[in-house]
Amino acid sequence: MKNRIIFFVSDRTAITAETLGNSLLTQFEGVERERHVIPFIDTEARAASVRDRINDSYTVNEGRPIVFSTFTNDDLRAIVAESNCIFYDLFNDYISRMENDLRQESSHIVGKSHGLVDKSSYESRIRAVNYALVNDDGARLDHYDQADVILVGVSRTGKTPTSLYLALQYGIFTANFPITDADLENSMLPRALKAYKKKLFGLTIGADQLSRIREERRPGSPYASLRTCQREVSQVEELFHMANIPFLNVTAISIEEIAAQIRLTRELDVKQF
After folding, report:
1. Which pLDDT tens digit goes with each residue over 144-155?
2. How far is CA 65 from the centre of its chain?
3. How far apart are CA 203 and CA 262, in angstroms?
């Protein structure tokens, strides 16, 4: 199998092209050699430049580059599609079918998929981000009544990035609270969390991975030692079981998958925007 150069091209952010294209590529091992994300191709001159760039990347030994496109503009799409590539149109293929099925023409407005559709929902998402920042790592305990979910776990299990992702992507008000050695020794939930048990979701991780992450933060410390990490992981999982708190091992899964599992388990509504 020949390695391919991969391009994700769009007249807007290219986020959709990259996300869906990468998801599809996971089903084919060893295909790509390098990847290029090219957003905001919104003029014919830029489209022609991308076409030339794709053509320049072609070599007989490696085969034609793969291009994932989410153009809404037919003319710009046609220019890029002229290049010597394998072209996957992730947007228009579905739009054409939907126009036929719904018996209605689409707007073909550039950037509408990432535009500001509902100002109130957008503002709610920003409030959720601010909430996650203020209530990070147990910094505030007096706003937990406003939380949609409270993430708990030992240090460095990904609570903060997951909180911010849930807030920014879905407008979910997410707090997070660290489980300390004192909590683990007592095998009890911290007093601050007991009233909000139905909002709790635990994150755990493989001890080896936890040790590597902590070693980057505090090299050579007891905090980062494998023995400490093994003890903490074992104790926190026992605490989750005893307190009947749903939890997820995040060792080998992406933040998107973590967020999806939290939303499913805690039945969290996604804010529309």
Report:
1. 999 999 999 999
2. 26
3. 10
* Residue 262 DSSP label: H
CATH class of 119-265: alpha beta
The DSSP string of 59-75 is: BTTTBPPEEEE----HH
What is the arrangement of strands in the sheet containing 149-153, beginning at the earlier edge strand? 174-178, 149-153, 200-204, 247-249
Measure the CA–CA gap between 163 and 155, rounded to whole angstroms.
Answer: 14
Check pLDDT > 80 for residue 167. yes
Q: Where in the chain are the domains?
A: 4-114, 119-265
Which residue in 178, 205, 202, 203 sits closest to 192, CA to CA?
Answer: 178
Instruction: For 76-91, write each residue's pLDDT tens digit.
Output: 999 999 999 999 998 8
**In what helix (H) or strand (E) does residue 88 lie, and over which residues does it extend?**
strand 86-89
pTM for the model stands at 0.70
**Could you tell me if 95 and 73 are in contact, meaning their C-beta atoms sit under 8 angstroms apart?**
no
**Cβ distance 12 to 39 under 8 Å?**
yes
Rounded distance between C-alpha atoms, residue 204 and residue 159, angstroms: 10
